[in-house]
Predict the 3D structure of the following.
Amino acid sequence: MKKIVFICTGNTCRSPMAKGIMDNILREKYPLLKEQIEIETAGLMVFNGAPASAGAIRVMEEVGVDLLTHEAQMVSQEMLDSAEWILAMTKGHKDYLSEQFHQPQGLYTLYELVGEEKDILDPFGGEEEIYRECREELEGVIIRIIDVLNAEIK
């Protein structure tokens, strides 16, 4: 089993959305790959146990993803050590992880893993449309990430 950890700031918007999107795509299009991948999420500044944000819950419900049971958790060295891929939403998140944790292997931004330099939009506190834009952005890059992971796992 290969483990992916999605990292964002508070673990209430982008990372749970990313996990839900990846789970959906793997279930629908790559069921054999889904059996080989475990997905976890965490944040850098977290209120442990906090739910997903209301905006994230609503826009993910629109695509059949339930975030109601999500509970935010703080990133840990153990979590990073157990992951093949640590996917940060921004370069700032990646830099923080590099500075604060012991040699995280497999650390990338989502876009970096697919050969681009770009951050994922943070929808926190924004209107639902901002959350939809974030969801669409995540879906677009996660489809490409799955292709990379599929090639690496084979």
Q: What stands out?
A: Residues 59 and 129 are 9 Å apart (CA to CA). The longest strand covers residues 2-8.
